[in-house]
Amino acid sequence: MRWTLLESASDKTYAVIFDTGDEVMSGLASFAKEHRLAGAHFTAIGAFSDAVLGYFDWQKKDYLRIPVDEQVEVVSLIGDIALENNEPKIHAHAVVARREGKTSGGHPLEGHVRPTLEVMVVESPAHLRPQFHPQSGLALIRW
Length: 143
What we know:
Layout lengths: L1 E6 L4 E8 L4 H11 L4 E19 L4 E7 L3 E13 L2 E11 L5 E21 L6 E4 L4 E4 L2
Antiparallel strand pairs: 1-2, 2-7, 3-4, 3-5, 3-7, 5-6, 6-7, 8-9
């Protein structure tokens, strides 16, 4: 994983580039912790050699796992970073496209990159930082 900071007077944007074999979700969590991100949002495109998506079961408050055991294009990956117990927590949704064009979507639980994944992480202003919401288990913007 490589990254660079694209900074303006009002916000910080990081370009985080994952390479073949990198695991995205743990990598994003490590990046958020290292850079002390208390709130951010991100978008990404690229490809996975394999992944596990999740469908959130509201009754169980847990994810049903959806394995993706083939090369896929990441046609959309969006999410938030918020703090839960002073640790960054990632909440994301992804859509991946298979060879024949069929798509699968859900919460990315795991994803191994091949050949690259380009993630743009934008730090949120303090007044728009998502906060962990214990009833839903999600990061929600509150003010």
